[in-house]
Amino acid sequence: MRYELYYWPTIQGRGEFVRLALEEAGCGYVDVARETGRGAGVPRLMRFLAGRESGELPFAPPFLKAGRQVMAQTANILLYLGDRHGLAPREESGRLWTHQLQLTIADLVDEVHDTHHPIASSLYYEDQKREALRRAGDFLDNRLTKYLDYFERVLARNPRGRGWLVGARLTYADLSLFQVLTGLDYAFPRTMRRRSRRYRRLRALSRAVEDRSRISAYLKSERRLPFSEEGIFRHYPELEGAQSS
Questions:
Q1: Domain for residue 144, yes or no?
Q2: How many domains does the chain have?
Q3: Do the domain assignments include residue 113?
Q4: Are residues 17 and 176 in contact, defined by beta-carbon separation less than 8 angstroms?
Q5: Per-residue pLDDT tens over the stretch 34-89
Q6: Which terminus of the chain, N or C, has less C-beta within 10 A?
Q7: Model-level pTM?
Q8: By residue range, what is the domain housing residue 168?
Q9: Mean pLDDT of the chain
Q10: What's the pLDDT tens digit per position in 97-129?
């Protein structure tokens, strides 16, 4: 099946979690908003959001079209892809555990976003900079540590080992955690360098994902958009300086 991914064309954002799964699975897909030609690109994305392309009406990107099936919400899309492309365990308990981890990753992503947009997404960063400094300071001092400690413990307690979050094989949750760790390295490089020894299992997971043949090829390709100050993970040096420790 050739999938259609609908997401904004110039940022990684939440669409990147879906791209990584599609790339690892070797799926054929079209990144619709990045297509060119009459009626293509963002106009087609907007037509879909307005309900003029399908009977389905997703709230916001990303959403994925698989034949006649349309699904939205990153974790929901990954649940679908994981089941069909070997990126999740076969047994129900393993699938639910993987989905649970993905939802926790989604919570972390939301908190990262709120370090630079704590008041409203509709406002510019400069319009809420004072509040962003306070929010980022608390995130780096408290919340980030709780999340990273948690995922480090999950890796340590995986009874089947091999460095993955669930069982003995890579899942979409590993791909998503790789994306988060890479994004945190971009947004908060000094903080992540200082804590690298504390999270050796997380670092090993990140390297293992990056070394996978399809992911490595994707990361080197033009399909992989760079991090920027328009996405979820943004590097504002003053925010990293807001932490107390």
A1: yes
A2: 2
A3: yes
A4: yes
A5: 998 777 899 888 888 887 666 677 888 999 999 988 999 999 999 999 999 999 99
A6: C
A7: 0.94
A8: 92-212
A9: 94
A10: 999 999 999 999 999 999 999 999 999 999 999
